[in-house]
Specification:
Blueprint: E1 4-9, H1 15-26, E2 30-31, H2 34-43, H3 47-52, H4 63-72, H5 77-80, H6 84-102, E3 106-108, H7 112-115, E4 122-128, H8 131-141, H9 148-169, E5 182-185, H10 186-206
Parallel strand pairs: 1-3, 1-4, 2-3, 4-5
Helix pairs in contact: 1-10, 2-6, 8-9
């Protein structure tokens, strides 16, 4: 297998679990929170700082400056003066590329599809789900959330964060069908069925 799989996901859609099962199915590495540990190792940033800025939206500084600084490298004066959120993004950007260069894997979130836009062995997926299914999953997995209303509020907050983060840094729109190679509603086939469906898609892509 040569393919790198990136997964964007709505909160509560099961995107993380689907990613884990796909990685297990193909016998390849999986990176979600694991990416934070790797970024800390590669960049020297404190893990807690990376966690505090993980997929968080930002309204400060100019996007173009971020990209210009990425071209010049970490030693430029612009990088030194840059807000920590942008430094974290650039560190993740670099680590995602390093991981993809190492071989096939599953990468969840963190604008991985955008970071690997120039790679020709990448499949970009987006996992969504019906609101009822998402709320049920949130309540099952987060014991501190005790009502459907709180689950909905938390879900909307997390999705807004992810959307703002992605739309700020990437050149396309989070959750839009045209951004991805395939968008799947996990409510239709369930987690296991969605994994089988995507696995077949990836295998067909490999054998094209």
């Amino acid at each position: 297998m040569k393919t790198v799989i990136t997964i964007g996901r709505q909160f509560g859609s099961g995107g993380r679990e689907i990613g884990e099962k796909l990685a297990e199915y193909f016998g390849i590495p999986y990176y979600d929170k694991e990416l934070i540990t790797r970024v800390a190792k590669d960049s020297g940033f404190c893990k807690e700082i990376i966690e505090n800025n993980d997929e968080r939206p930002t309204n400060s500084f100019l996007y173009n400056l971020v990209m210009d600084t990425y071209s010049f490298g970490y030693n430029s004066s612009s990088f030194i003066d840059m807000p920590i959120s942008h430094k974290i993004f650039l560190a993740q950007f670099d680590t995602i590329k390093k991981i993809a260069d190492e071989g096939p894997c599953v990468l969840v979130g963190r604008c991985a599809d955008y970071a690997l836009a120039d790679y020709d062995n990448v499949i970009n997926l987006f996992i969504c789900a019906n609101e009822e299914c998402k709320i049920k999953r949130i309540l099952e997995r987060h014991s501190e959330i005790t009502s459907e209303a709180k689950a909905r509020e938390f879900m909307n907050k997390k999705d807004k964060q992810r959307q703002s983060y992605y739309n700020y840094y990437a050149s396309s729109k989070w959750g839009h069908a045209t951004t991805y190679d395939m968008t799947v509603n996990s409510s239709v086939l369930g987690i296991e069925g969605t994994v089988k469906f995507i696995a077949q898609f990836v295998e067909d892509y490999e054998n094209r």
